[in-house]
Specification:
By secondary structure, this protein is of the alpha/beta class. The protein is 20% helix and 31% strand. The protein is built from 3 helices and 9 strands. A 6-stranded mixed β-sheet has the order 4-3-2-5-6-7. Strands 1-9-8 form a 3-stranded antiparallel β-sheet. α3 (123-133) links the parallel β5 (111-119) and β6 (139-147). The mean pLDDT is 90. The structure holds inosinic acid and magnesium ion. Magnesium ion (MG) is lined by residues 57, 60-61, 116-117.
Length: 194
């Protein structure tokens, strides 16, 4: 639910491409912290005493993953990264996913957890999960901080979801609009142009 109509102020001067863009504060950093701790608690139960290969999807999951990792306990955690490229993505992907960077870890027989910051059409994670499954892991689960389930074009159900969000394009806390906004601590939605 959007209840706070605060347009971002001058602290976040937009690059010239976004001179007329308006962003409205949507989710506070403190709420993200609570969500992250709760997700970590669930994982601490699920993977207690086990090994877990966590695969972060660059670049958007960077901030979320680093915060999540700090709360994981009694799990032997390995961390690796992929960098996927959604062809045609600006605010919408158009279908083709390519791999900019693959994992180096051998996941055969391992528990794998893929960590994303947001699932939209589901194409990126569908592609990644299928790829990982080809390497015969023991298990593969998907965790996303944010989810837009009504935007799905491929069937994909994350195992852990931090928060379902409205039909808005959001930036901040790792999420970007054309590389802008990843460093902003709170989440803002793009009010204009939409
Ligand atoms: P999908 O393949 O459509 O599910 O795309 C997922 C990827 O698109 C995410 O990992 C993000 O990088 C990007 N994305 C989707 N929605 C948003 C958004 O609202 N803000 C920023 N990036 C987004
Ligand atoms: Mg991503």
């Amino acid at each position: 639910m959007i209840n706070e109509e605060v347009v971002m102020n001058d602290i976040y001067k937009f690059p010239s491409d976004f001179v007329s863009a308006q962003f409205v504060k949507y989710i506070e950093q403190s709420e993200i912290e609570n969500i992250t701790k709760s997700l970590a608690a669930t994982l601490n139960e699920r993977y207690k005493g086990e090994e877990l290969v966590i695969i972060g999807a660059l670049k958007g999951s960077l901030l979320f993953l680093s915060d999540l990792l700090k709360h994981l306990q009694n799990i032997k955690v390995y961390v690796d990264f992929v960098h996927l490229n959604s062809v045609g993505r600006d605010k919408e992907s158009h279908g083709t996913i390519t791999l900019n960077k693959d994992i180096k870890t051998n996941v055969m027989g391992k528990n794998v957890l893929i960590v994303e910051e947001i699932v939209d059409t589901g194409r990126a994670l569908h592609f990644l999960k299928s790829r990982i499954q080809q390497s015969s892991p023991r298990s593969v689960e998907l965790l996303t901080l944010f989810d837009k389930p009504y935007k799905r074009v491929v069937p994909l159900k994350p195992d852990y979801i931090g928060k379902q969000i409205d039909d808005q394009f959001i930036i901040g806390y790792g999420l970007d609009l054309e590389e802008y906004g990843r460093n902003i601590s709170d989440i803002y939605y793009l009010k204009y142009p939409n």
